[in-house]
Design brief:
Largest sheet: 6 strands, mixed
CATH architecture: 4-Layer Sandwich
Strand content: 15-25%
CATH class: Alpha Beta
CATH topology: Purple Acid Phosphatase, chain A, domain 2
Helix content: 10-25%
CATH superfamily: Metallo-dependent phosphatases
Order of helices and strands: EHEHEHEEEHEHHEEEEEEE
Number of domains: 1
Distance between the termini: 39 Å
Structural class: alpha/beta
Strand order of the largest sheet: 4-3-2-1-13-14
Shape: globular
Radius of gyration: 17 Å
Bound molecules: fe (ii) ion
């Protein structure tokens, strides 16, 4: 893994550059069955409500939202139903991927509806977005099974031009936080073996770690996102809460393959819009 990519940023308040595609990644929403559920002192529903208000005020021209796992904390139908209702306030499709806290079947059944969908891929302009499930039943870590790796290989071979972005829940590389690295993606090397054969892949993005990561491997950006609720302290050896506010990641995909990205933190954490 190389140094941070020092990506440029793009203010999403103005009109998008012609041909570019704006995305917003939200991750680890951790909704509970009960509306009063708190994750280490933070109410995920209230926290996401504030963040969605901020996104609606500050992010214009967003083509799609990517929700990268741990969308529920307890995989209950009630949590997914409440999250679907919250996400309907966003003015673009929301592409959802399961995390270790999710149950993929329950998630598909109760979260899908209206603009909220759980696809395997999407085509936006010249960009091929591929969504991978790393859910591993009974484990906090994740893995890509052989069938998914084959499907990924075939999907990339079928659309070799012009650019691709991969989204999943678990980080495919260690992030330097031992307790988190013990529950990352078990077979990140298998993922990179596929990606190395397909140079159109520009970036891999994920959630799970509740903190920002910015790295580069073989010309592919590797970006981790904060959570919309509790943050985890970078470099911690065991669970430690970070006092940074919740946030989201904005991405602008350009026709020439460049991606501008920035993590945006909530101005006033926990406020309801
Ligand atoms: Fe999480």
């Amino acid at each position: 893994m190389g140094p941070a990519s020092s990506a440029e940023t793009d203010a999403h308040g103005s009109a998008p550059e012609p041909g570019s595609i704006r995305l917003v990644q939200i991750s680890d929403t951790h909704f509970g069955r009960d509306r009063d559920f708190e994750f280490d002192g933070v109410n995920p529903r209230r926290s996401l409500g504030g963040l969605i208000g901020q996104i609606r005020r500050e992010e214009s021209g967003v083509a799609a939202f990517l929700a990268t796992g741990d969308l529920s904390h307890d995989a209950s139908p009630e949590s997914y139903t409440a999250l679907r209702e919250a996400l309907q306030r966003l003015a673009a499709p929301v592409f959802c991927i399961p995390g270790n806290h999710d149950d993929p079947g329950t998630m598909r059944r109760f979260l899908s509806g209206g603009r909220v969908v759980c696809p395997e891929a999407a085509q936006l302009g010249g960009w091929h977005l591929i969504f991978l499930s790393t859910h591993l039943q009974g484990s906090q870590g994740g893995a890509l099974d052989p069938g998914q790796l084959t499907a990924l290989e075939e999907a990339l071979a079928a659309r070799p031009q012009p650019h691709a972005l991969i989204a999943l829940h678990h980080p495919p590389v260690p992030i330097g936080s031992p307790w988190m690295d013990a529950m990352g993606l078990e077979n990140g090397e298998d993922l990179f073996a596929v990606l190395d054969r397909h140079p159109q892949v520009r970036a891999v993005i994920w959630g799970h770690i509740h903190q920002e990561v910015d790295a580069l491997r073989n010309g592919v950006h590797l970006w981790g996102a904060p959570s919309t609720c509790v943050q985890f302290k970078p470099g911690a050896t065991r669970y430690e809460r970070d006092d940074r506010p919740p946030g989201h990641r904005r991405l602008t995909l350009h026709p020439d393959g460049r991606i501008l990205t920035q993590v945006v933190r909530q101005v006033s954490a926990g406020t309801q819009a």
